[in-house]
UniProtKB/TrEMBL annotation, chains A, B, C:
It holds the Pfam family Na_Ca_ex. Its main location: membrane. This is Ca(2+)/H(+) antiporter. Ca(+)/H(+) antiporter that extrudes calcium in exchange for external protons. It is found in: Endomembrane system. One of its GO terms (molecular function) is calcium:proton antiporter activity. InterPro entries: CaH_exchang, CAX-like, NaCa_Exmemb, NCX_ion-bd_dom_sf. The chain crosses the membrane at residues 26-45, 57-78, 90-110, 122-143, 158-179, 204-225, 237-259, 271-293, 299-320, 327-345. It comes from the Bacteria. Residues 24-176, 203-344 form the Sodium/calcium exchanger membrane region domain. It is a multi-pass membrane protein. GO terms for biological process: intracellular calcium ion homeostasis.
Length: 346, 346, 346
């Protein structure tokens, strides 16, 4: 996190850049760079507040604010009508977490420790949940693509809202499950009775400030996507599925890798799977609901996104039933990610 | 089972309804309700006969008569030429068993017991068998849908009969496996040396009577499907994949849930997976063979059925390799089932 | 291996057959029969050389020459421009190894031993690797088939070469992993300090001779494919996916079955999975690189091959997480293979 601090310099630069109407590609890069440290501080502030609020509310705050950056970026993309970018970034966050974050954690952890073991039981609970969540999310899309496409759009909307509602209910039940009925299954090792580094007041201030600045930068970022992709002949889809998820998740990614290098593979895997779960069960439904304010967004993924999501299920399923990791597995996950990214580019 | 007894009243009602030509929707509902207790009595009668015949023949009888209700309903649908309904009800029975029955068992069991454990070994044997069976059953369909559709129909028939034959041979070998070469793997806990409640004569009489009445009611039911779907603008496909399997399996469903609430998750899971296996390896081939009497039915599932079947494989695979269940997993399975059903409706 | 010696008689017969221009079907059969013992001797010679070279170089030699026969046959098919046959034989080798070899091993082993256990840990490492490899190999094809097919051919080439390169790098890293950083995970039981039966000189001579004669026979074989398939109205695709893999892998197949019958299921499974891995990570990339000498071959599989590959993944995944096998599982794997083969014929 420490060296990321220096990226804060990109905040004023981005404002100047927007003001003097720099080329969209530069605005995109600069605002991306400025979001990365903000997402990091936001995470830290949430952690600090958790110390004051106690583990139960703290866990809820963490679960809710953990993907705030993606949510804010996606909200502005939604407002700008970039539905394809929004859906691509949902799918991209999941595959990025499963293939890139998990792969990098296994690689860097595996370079230090020959074989890294993790608690199969905990990983199995969340990987089962991820399996069900991805399947639920994908079913409308799979049926749409295989069906004769004579269905009426209004029916899609209705189906999307139902699925979003189902996902959101499971999200709430999942919180009840982890923080109430089965709380002993989790978090036993997180109790480490931390001391707060920041005062509660400072933490809340940082949280609010970061949210505001991320919102501003997200507006710059999203505004530059269309002109940039036109000039560079990149697809908006590629920006959505590869680049935005990397920006939005950078802070968590670095945490997962650091944990893996401390031989805490459980924590690294939980970050990757847990973050994917939040995207599907919390961020995606919220975006569907928010879209009703503008123009309803359906939850129908395209075939590329489906394939990428199903692949990530199969892999996390395999990883979970193993209980061990090594550097070669890490490289293979990263290789699958690179091959997917290459396929998106052409 | 006890309160289901009162449903027997629907048998005379259904005959009157048929006679006075009630609206098809009412005939459908009344005959459905009358089948539910009959299926239950049939199961009980089979169990009673097993007590007299000893475990080996008893197991065979159970395996053969377990899905007799579905077989009878499907036979009349076959005779009426409703091939889509027949195939949909085969797929629907499998996904109903895996998602709805297993889901409800995990949910209701999980509400009483925090974590329910089950014997991974036994579940793995049957879930492997289910995996192979579903894959074998789906391959002709997958190849048909991906192929350029210039294949001749006669070739489909030939392929369907071959697959049905392969499935049926594996069914017989599976019986030989569980009741002869590897019988100690199974049933060790079923030996509980039960006493018969009914005389052998009574049991056989009940079995024969139930079969006859179910046949009658199935004819009413199937006869009402076409006019009903036309009036309600429901697809026959929806009736086949969702409603008929629920009617045909109601008795087993309630047994599975009761077992789960007694913390016998092994038995609940075995009912769900075992019933699916019987549908694929016994009911489906028999229906293909019987269809030769009328007009050959191919075993080519449509894309929706394929997706639903593959999803249920993935999930049962995950569940089996876990060894534990809780209420949240149950809700998730049911949510996937509801999303599938919603997708079928639109 | 012993009775296979007599097949050497087919070498002179094939030369005569080619000279007197026998019907293509006969040339195909005779040259196939002559390749089977040669592949066996080649394997034996490699083993002998390994004894002299020590386990590290020996393992590398085994890994490299293990699929030399397929590589040579495919090279001549490549030279003859039979790209569909080459790609089909890559997919066919994988499904043949997973379904037929593993199935036959489990069946024949299971007939002698009631339940055969194997080391889950070792199998999981290679089955994970196979999962990632198949997914990586299939992604370009899946994306191509689901995409609107407006992509330019030159881009396919570029993607194929990238994927081939990624596979080959993982192959090299995999060798480094198994023979250097994690060598204790493997091979501990292979150390059995064998004595060489042949002198080093003889071994090298046999290796070189076999390679030359296989090359000659492969040229006969490949030359007969096109006229033969035309006469018999078989598809080249069927020859590629079913027949050539059986010829190329015959020697390994018999070894795997022999090992299973000695209750060494670990070794049998390792042969099946390891051979599949070599095909994907070594043979396929080499063939893509070699194709640049003639006309670039893309790595885009057709839908049939994709389905077959994905099915084999699912099955090996299931098998690996089980740790046990029996004759019924063996029969089921073989049944799935037969159903796939039947689907290819129609």
């Amino acid at each position: 996190m420490n060296f990321l601090k220096f990226f804060l310099i990109f905040i004023p630069i981005s404002i100047v850049a927007e003001f003097i109407k720099l080329k969209p590609i530069w605005i995109f890069i600069i605002s991306s760079f400025s979001i990365i440290p903000l997402a990091g501080f936001m995470g830290e502030a949430t952690e600090e507040i958790s110390v004051y609020s106690g583990p139960r509310i703290g866990g809820f705050l963490n679960a809710t604010f953990g993907n705030a950056t993606e949510l804010i970026i996606s909200f502005f993309a939604l407002k700008a009508g970039l539905f394809d970018v929004v859906k691509a970034s949902i799918a991209g966050s999941v595959i990025g977490n499963i293939l890139l974050v998990l792969g990098a954690s296994m690689l860097f952890g595996g370079l230090k420790y020959k074989v890294q073991k993790f608690n199969k039981k905990i990983v199995e609970v969340s990987s089962s949940m991820l399996l069900f969540a991805v399947i639920g999310l994908c079913i409308p899309a799979i049926f749409t693509h295989t069906a004769n496409k004579e269905l009426i759009t209004s029916k899609y909307e209705w189906l999307s809202i139902s699925v979003a509602l189902a996902m959101f209910i499971i999200y709430l039940l999942g919180l009840y499950f982890s923080f109430h009925t089965h709380k002993d299954l989790y978090g036993s090792e997180h109790v480490e009775n931390e001391k707060a580094k920041w005062s509660l007041k400072k933490s809340i201030l940082v949280l609010v400030l970061c949210t505001l600045v991320i919102a501003l930068e997200s507006e710059f970022l999203v505004g530059s996507v269309e002109p940039m992709t036109e000039t560079l002949k990149l697809s908006e889809f590629f920006v959505g599925i590869i680049i935005i998820p990397i920006i939005g998740n950078a802070a968590e990614h670095s945490t997962a890798i650091v944990m893996a290098m401390k031989n805490k593979m459980d924590v690294a895997i939980e970050i990757a799977i847990g973050s994917s779960l939040q995207i599907i069960l919390f961020v995606a439904p919220i975006l569907v609901f928010l879209s009703l304010l503008f123009k309803p967004m359906s939850i129908i993924f395209n075939e590329f996104e489906l394939v990428a999501l199903v692949v990530s299920i199969l892999i996390v399923n395999r990883v979970a039933s193993d209980g061990e990791s090594n550097w070669l597995e890490g490289i293979q996950l990263i290789a699958v990610y690179i091959i997917i990214a290459l396929s998106f580019i052409i």
